[in-house]
Structures are given as C-alpha cells and as structure tokens.
C-alpha cells in the first residue's frame, strides 16, 4: 500500500509541475499582451495560485486509471499489467 501511495504522489506532483510549466510558457508567450493590460507581477503569480484547484482536479481525473491499475497490481502482478502501468 505504501508503494501505491508513493507512486501516485510522485505522479500527482509530476502533473502539477507539468501544468505549472505549461502555464509559465503560456504567460511568457503572451507577455506582451499581459504588459499591455498593465497586469503586475502579482496578477501573474495569482494566476498560478487560482489555477491550483483546477490543476488538482484535472490531475485526480488523470490519475484515476493509474490508481485502479496499481490497486489491481498490488493483488495480482502479471507482466502485461506492469507494461500498462508504465504506459
């Protein structure tokens, strides 16, 4: 059970970081438009803070299938199930 939780936690953090990086790339690409709107640094940082609940919800939806695979894998571990989990 500890392995399942640690694995899911690592995947959860990965997806949150991936969403944050994507948001940073988006903000960098549209920096000119953001500057035209006179949005300060705090507005840009607030976008990351206010997007966190949506990112967490999306991450939970993404991790639902890996969670089911890991639960089944903890009971029965054939090679094809290991391959599915890696994919």
Task: Explain what the structure shows.
The chain has 87 residues and is mainly alpha-helical. It is 87% helix and 0% strand. The protein is built from five helices and no strands. The longest helix has 28 residues, at 2-29. The radius of gyration is 18 Å and the shape is elongated. The two termini are 21 Å apart.
Characteristics of this structure?
single chain, 87 residues, mainly alpha, 5 helices, 87% helix
Question: What's a concise summary of this model?
Answer:
The chain contains five helices and no strands. With 87 residues, the protein is mainly α.
Q: Overall 3D geometry?
A: elongated
Low-confidence stretches: none
Helix and strand pattern: HHHHH
Head-to-tail CA distance between termini:
21 Å
Helix content: over 70%
Q: Report the mean per-residue pLDDT as an integer.
A: 86
Rounded to an integer in angstroms, the radius of gyration calculated over CA atoms is: 18 Å
Kindly name the structural category. mainly alpha
What proportion strand? Answer: under 5%
Continuous helix count: 5
Would you spell out the secondary-structure blueprint of this structure?
Blueprint: H1 2-29, H2 31-36, H3 41-62, H4 64-75, H5 79-86
Helix pairs in contact: 1-3, 4-5
């Amino acid at each position: 059970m500890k392995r399942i939780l640690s694995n899911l936690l690592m995947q959860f953090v990965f997806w949150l970081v991936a969403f944050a990086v994507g948001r940073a790339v988006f903000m960098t690409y549209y920096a000119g438009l953001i500057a035209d709107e006179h949005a300060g640094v705090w507005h840009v940082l607030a976008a990351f803070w206010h997007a966190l609940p949506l990112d967490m919800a999306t991450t939970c939806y993404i991790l639902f299938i890996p969670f089911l695979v890991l639960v089944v894998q903890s009971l029965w571990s054939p090679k094809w199930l290991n391959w599915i989990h890696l994919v």
